[in-house]
Structure formats: structure tokens, C-alpha cells
Amino acid sequence: MAKGSQRILVAPLDWGLGHATRCIPIIEALQENGAEPLIAGAGNGLKILQGQFPDIPTLELPSYQIRYAKGRHLVPALMKQVPSILRTIKEEKALVDEWITKYNITGIISDNRYGVRSTRVPSVVICHQLAAKAPKRLAWGDPIVRRAHMYTLRHFDEVWVPDSQKVALSESMAHGNWVPSKVSYLGLLSRFFGKEMPADFETPELKGKTPNIVAVISGPEPQRSQLVEKIKQQALSAGVDIWMVLGQPKLKHVKQEGGVLLIPHLKTPDMHRLLGTAEIVISRSGYTSLMDYLAIGTKKNILVATPGQTEQEFLAERLHERKIALNILQKNFELTEALEEVEEFAGMSAIDEKLDLSQRLGNWLRQI
Fold this sequence. Notes:
Blueprint: E1 7-12, H1 18-21, H2 24-32, E2 36-41, H3 43-52, E3 58-60, H4 74-80, H5 82-102, E4 107-111, E5 123-126, H6 142-153, E6 158-161, E7 183-185, E8 213-216, H7 223-238, E9 242-245, E10 255-257, E11 260-263, H8 268-277, E12 280-283, H9 287-296, E13 301-303, H10 310-321, E14 326-327, H11 335-341, H12 357-367
Parallel strand pairs: 1-2, 1-4, 2-3, 4-5, 5-6, 6-7, 8-9, 8-12, 9-11, 12-13, 13-14
Antiparallel strand pairs: 10-11
């Protein structure tokens, strides 16, 4: 480590790809301020960050290995995994304690990894869902869930919400008079803010082409594969040409099946061009995806929340109510009908409202 610089451990949760991709601007801002990031993670999220920052050293954290139920019964499925999750939190905390000494770590930025923290160095957690949403039939329990979550977050010195008071994309999940003083707002966090859309794709199979309908599907199994297969089969049956990005960076080759182009993964410049030029984007309603769509200004959006994931369902319903994006339940998804219905929705108009992330990270580095 260079004399006078600070080494900051950045560790995103391996639950979908959004936690990793929204750490890209955080890592870039740390570098702009002369800090030396050290990336820790697991699975596809770590693979993405290794590809984005090949010169930054990376460390392996245990995977949470979250798996969803095949249907909508997510809560019982997650409850069964609680012992495993708690073991993972304990394991990652032990690793962090070792790494602080071994790698001379001076600060920690954790994206939803509750064991990546320490009392020995300043520890920050990035989280947009301070008040987790219970299933609708258990909505009476929302205040209890919120208090329990905030109790968990007490271990961190600061809580950074990737949102702003003006945009309030997270709505009641992170805004209200109950929010404690240790919570602050970063502004919307997207790897696409401040970046110019490339003039063409870098991926050889995509060069010179312009997508019309695209589906970007990632997230935990088995729901990811189920939605991919449903969209693919419906597109083949209806003769609809569609590009599908599968959220699988470990795979290498683009494949063509009829009018369906299967793309394992795209690096940031190609994803920017894909979202910026497509007429219609089909995806989950994950929070990071929505921030990306606001950064770019996607034209039309069809949102299919992961069944049982209450946060995604809440966000998709709110955007549907505001006539911004079409919301469809996965079990009811019909491609041709969705392509017709989405024309009635406005799309995610690009916004320019965000804080100066580099300045914000610089201030934090000076304080620690």
C-alpha cells in the first residue's frame, strides 16, 4: 500500500448481481480519492467486479447460497436457510478480523453483508431497504421487521442509502421520521451515471446491431431459470425476436435459438448500449436495476418481480400505479400481451439528480 493511502474493503452481497454492480461507482470514487480498494465477495458478483477491475486484488467470502422456493412461498424457504445465513455471517466476520491485520485495512464498505464489519476500523453498510417489507398478509408485522432490521444495523458506524430525499425511489422502505441519525443518503447509485453511451457494442456477435426487445434476467435460482425459460419459449412460439442477457458471467459464448439471442453476460459499456438503445426492457424490479434505468432513461419497461420477494413486488406495483412501468406477475406473464400493454406506460425518464459521489467518499476518507 502506498504511503499515506487508505485501504478500503468493499464487499457486496452475493444475492443477485445488483449489489456488485452498484459497488462499481463506489470503487471508482475511492480510486479517484487516492484510496486503494480491496474487493471481497463470492460467486457471479465477484466475477463481475474482477472483470471490471482486473488490477484490484480480490478476496473470497463465503457465499450466502440463497435459494428461492419454486413458487411464491419465499418466507418459509428463507426461514429454513436462517441457520446457514447466520453461520455465513459468523464466518465472514472472522475472515474480516484476520484481513484487517493481514492487509492493513483502514475502513470497510459493506453492501448488505452484515458480518463484514469491525469495531477496529470505521464500518459502513449500504442498504436501501431499511424497513423490509413483510408479505401483504403479514403487513401488520412491518414495524416489527423494521425495528429488528435497524437493530441489526446498529453494529455499523454509518448506514448509506443509495437514494435521495428528492427522488425517494425507495419510498417508505428508507424514508420517514423513524430514520435514525446514522442514516444518510448517497443519491442514486449507478455505474452508468456520468458515462457516455458507447457508439457500438464491444461484443463481436453484437457489433453493428440494434436491439428492439431485451430481457435482462438475473437473481437467485430457481426463479431466474424459470423466467428465462418462460420468456424464451414464448418468444419462440410467437416468433418474437428478443435479446436475453442471462446474468451468468462464467459462461462465455453468445447463442442464437431462432429469433432468441442468448447472451451470458455483458460488461458495463455493452450493457449501457443495450439499455440505452432497446425499445423495450423486460427485467426483474430489483432496486439497482431501477437506478440503472433512471440513469440511462430506458424507453419502456416491463417488470416481473421475483415471486415472493416483497421489495421487488412493492417497487413494481408503485411504478405501475404511477404509469411508469408495466408490472406483471411471473405466473401471469404472457410476452405478446405484455408487449402491447407496455405502450401505455411512460418509461423511466433519465434524471440528473445525484450527489457528487467522489466528493462524498473523499469527505468520508478524510474523516476516518
